[in-house]
Hints:
Blueprint: H1 27-39, E1 42-46, H2 53-63, E2 68-72, H3 80-96, H4 104-107, H5 117-129, E3 135-140, H6 153-160, E4 165-171, H7 180-183, E5 189-191, H8 193-196, H9 200-209, H10 218-225, H11 229-243, H12 260-267, H13 273-282, E6 287-289, H14 290-297, H15 302-311, E7 316-322, E8 325-330, H16 332-345, H17 347-361, H18 366-375, H19 379-396, H20 399-407, H21 417-429, H22 433-445, H23 452-465, E9 477-480, E10 486-489, H24 497-512, H25 517-533, H26 537-554, H27 557-574, H28 583-595, H29 599-612, H30 619-634, H31 637-653, H32 658-674, H33 678-685, H34 695-707, H35 711-719, H36 728-744, H37 748-762, H38 769-773, H39 775-788, H40 793-806, H41 820-829, H42 835-842, H43 846-860, H44 865-874
Parallel strand pairs: 1-4, 1-5, 2-3, 3-4
Antiparallel strand pairs: 6-8, 7-8, 9-10
Amino acid sequence: MQNAGWVPGPQFKIRPPVRSLGALERPRLENALSAAADSHRLTLVAAPAGYGKSTFLGDWVRKSDLPCAWLSLDRFDTEPGRLFHGVVGAIQSAANKSPLPGNDSLLALDQGLAHDRTASYDLLLGALEDLTEPIVLVIDDVHLAGPGLASGIVGVLAASAPPPLRLVLSGRGHTSIQLERFRYGEGLGELGAAELAFTREEVAQFACSLGQDPEFDAGSLWKATAGWPVAVHASLVSLAQSRNAPLTTPIATPAHIPLADYVAEEILDQLEPSLAEFILRATTCDWLGRRLAVELYGRPHGSVLLEECLRNGLFIEEHDYRSGESMYRWHSLFAEQCRRILERRDPLLAERLHRVAARYYQDADVVEGVAQTLKGRAPRQAVMSLGAHWLEFVLGNDAQTLERLCRELPTPWGEDPEILMIRSVCRALSGDNAAADELVRRALSRTFVLDATRRRTLDGYRTLFEPLPAAGRPDHRATPGADGRATADLPGGRRSGPGSTGLFLLAQAEFRLHRSGEFATALLHAAGDVGNAEQLDALDICAHADLSLAFAAAGDLAGAEEHATQALGRVEALGWGSQERLAPAWLARGIARYWNDELKAARACLAKAQRLGSEFFPSGPLSAIYRVLVDCATGDLTRLADSSAALEEYHGRGKYAVSWNALYTVAVAKVAEAKGDLEGALGIVQPLGAGGHGALADTLLAELLRRGGEATTAQRCAGLLADRRRNPYIDTCLSLTEALLAHGSGDTAAAHERLEHAVERAEPASILRPFAGLRDELADLLVQHAVWGTAHESFIAALMARDTHGGARLRAQSYWNLTEREREVLAYMRSIMTAAEIADALFISVNTVKTHERSIYRKLGAGSRRDALKTAAQRGIV
């Protein structure tokens, strides 16, 4: 019987919130919560303010098939008696709606917490055990209950409630309830900010629900807000108000999303003052480490408050590692609003903190460091930073970005002679020699503003980079060396250590700008030679490491292996501790192994290159591209998921040039193709058109277009690479694509001519991956080509032998009838090679070959080579 003293609590606390007009229904989340509540006794919904937790949970409660109790907490629920009253009242309200026999003892409970708290808790647990039907208790805003939540009734229910009670706790961050035993024990349902954030489709749907045109550019808004629901709503309202009418045309996100007041009132003002102050200071930049957090906060326990932000999900996550230090990234839009708040409250402090961040980043990340100096109104510091690091900056990013930063310097700092000289080099490297000359003239006309030290620096630039010819590169001629490789003629005799360093850095810039690999190689040779002569061991090692990558990119796989071995060997001999600069050597080895079709070894080398690579060198992103290619080749979807995630991580940093974007797009398409979605892959590469990008990107693009049936576009793409076929593996891939295009159109002569050319380029360097990747399509064409006539019979026969060994489709039940050596001989018999030529290819005697042939005839019941091959084909052996 119901307790005669039962008095309902405030109804607004035990009713889910009324759904606001225009709120988005989210069946995706509702289904996820239903699955979690079905599978777990405790489910946690945790995300910062503005993620729509209450709205979504209210919709779920109203639609749920199970009886649901709702309780909204407030700041007064820190008192145990009040919290117990609310919990019991909410459960009784839900039980009242389902008059089942098992509910009687629950409805008879007194909502008041007795002096003996344990006895009251036990009575509630006992009443819950009598339930014959499950009840879901949703408690919203649990963070308002404070640290006493774990020791009160909610903690007791989480730890000991019987199975009929399902508990859903919703709040802004980490609760005081110990959750690890659930995660690693009976299980815990969890929905976090990542799940609660709007998807791109939900942003579009929400925009339409607010009266926007279906063509609204939802993608830009989704990217700018990272799906933060309140930010999406504020942006849409702001856009509509700015036009005083609903949007009718696609439009980008507003430049300013008006969320500062929301962040101040709903987030910062709800926190402890010390934590709120830490957040305002630490959001000076989007990325920070613990040391920077302490410097920005100005007190030693800044790292403790950083940990509290992580634990409570306050718009920050551990994201990356640099120089062995954990790095953390704020939600960019949240950080932007916090900066606006601090600038309004204390603009001088905001500027000073930007200068603190600039000093922290000045050596670790020049781009970020310069940006922070400008925000801190310290343009002189920006000039000094660019002057000290601009060569490294060219390597790690690109000349265009460097020049843009120079141009963004305010007057008169943008006319500083050193900055003008840096811009002249950027212009020269991009081929605009006229503009470079004009900038040099302007720089020299203003040298009177420099002190003696900076004047010497400026003269050093001129010595290093003048004269600049029309081609936009320093006037060092590449000439063949004694080994036939390019070397550089150095004007004015041998250079000093600084001059050698300049050659080395300039060669890296040349190589990373995807221009002449030969010129980069010549400069690296020159830098390495000077390094050896002057005992510059580090420079010599770096030169060999980068030479290995230059040779790999140019297609000289043997040269890449040679220089990689030298670099790695010298490091081991010297006991050199720094490994980061060896990343190019490991990447070069990985590239060589990939094109040699040694996929397992390639993956190991690429993984090491990616671990060692950094923001300032291309080993990481290029390794990510090749790791995707390796995993696509093996078809290992688990590894492919990992390599795809690494690729997305690099792409998300947005610090790479146009050539990277094309490679990234093709790699993503390759992933889709490897998963069987060829149509989706073609859709991904559609923006790339018919090529005109980097050689590797266009090569992969042409083959993808051919496989997708876009023969005309594929042919046009291959044709655009006519002047870039000096690279053997690029030429091999393109020639095979052209051969299959010709074969598909019935042009037999062109097909065999292109196939012969591909084999001719591939054989010297054992470039096998293009053939392995096209194994099925090339099988018949290779047999026909052997009959058609080739100057590379051994290589063709070896390819067919690899096909016999590698293809699962060739393994029939009769396959065991032939020995391993007999299968090798049979593969060579598919060509027109004589027994003597087969013997030479297999390094065995002619008599042994003939013995194997006789055994093959006997086992297959054949009287001749033709009959043996015909029977083998019928039985699925070849």
